[in-house]
Design a protein that fits this description.
By secondary structure, the protein is mostly helical. It is built from five helices and no strands. Bound molecules: hydroxy diiron-OXO moiety (OFO).
Length: 167
C-alpha cells in the first residue's frame, strides 16, 4: 500500500475513534440532563464509530500496513442546549466525510482501487449519518425553546433512529 494512503487510513482510525469518544461524551451529557432517549442514541452512535475504527484497523493489517493506535484529543463535554449537541453531531460527521473524501481522492491518484472499493462502505455510511444529523437538527430548530417539544423529541428519537437504521 502506498505510504500516503497508509497515513491517511491511520488518520482515519483516529477520526473514527475521536468520533466514538465524542459521542460517548455527548451520551453522558444527555444522560446527566435526563434526556434518556438522546443518551441512548449517542451511546449507540459511539458504538458504531468504534466499529468503523476497528474495521479500518483490521483492513490496514490485512493489507500488510502498519497500524498506529492513536492518542486522542479530549472530547467536548459541555453543551449549552440540545440543539448545540446536535450541531456538534453534524459538524463532526461533516468533518469525517471530508476526511473520507481525501482518502478517496488519494486512492484515485495512486490508482489503489482496492482501498477505493473498501472506502465505498464509509461513503455510504457518511451519507446516512449526515442526513440523520441534519433531520434531527431541523426538528430541533422547529421545536425552538419549547420544553415540552424537547420531551417529545427525547421520547421519539429512538423510534426515529431505528427507522433510519441508526439505532
Ligand atoms: Fe460517521 O463517522 Fe464513522 O464513518
Amino acid at each position: 500500500m502506498h505510504t500516503s494512503i497508509e497515513n491517511l487510513l491511520n488518520d482515519q482510525i483516529k477520526y473514527e475513534a475521536q468520533a466514538s469518544m465524542q459521542y460517548l461524551a455527548m451520551a453522558s451529557w444527555a444522560d446527566s440532563k435526563g434526556f434518556s432517549g438522546v443518551a441512548n442514541f449517542f451511546y449507540s452512535q459511539s458504538e458504531e464509530e468504534r466499529l468503523h475504527m476497528t474495521k479500518l484497523v483490521k483492513f490496514v493489517n490485512e493489507r500488510g500496513g502498519n497500524v498506529i493506535i492513536p492518542a486522542l484529543d479530549l472530547p467536548s463535554d459541555t453543551f449549552a442546549s440540545l440543539p448545540s449537541l446536535f450541531e456538534k453531531f453534524l459538524s463532526s460527521e461533516i468533518f469525517v466525510t471530508e476526511q473520507i473524501n481525501k482518502i478517496i481522492f488519494e486512492c484515485l491518484d495512486k490508482k489503489d482501487y482496492n482501498v477505493h472499493n473498501f472506502m465505498q462502505w464509509y461513503v455510504t455510511e457518511q451519507l446516512e449519518e449526515e442526513a440523520t444529523a441534519r433531520t434531527l437538527l431541523d426538528k430541533l430548530n422547529i421545536i425552538g425553546d419549547d420544553k415540552s417539544g424537547y420531551y417529545l423529541f427525547d421520547r421519539d428519537i429512538e423510534t426515529f433512529a431505528a427507522a433510519e437504521g441508526n439505532a
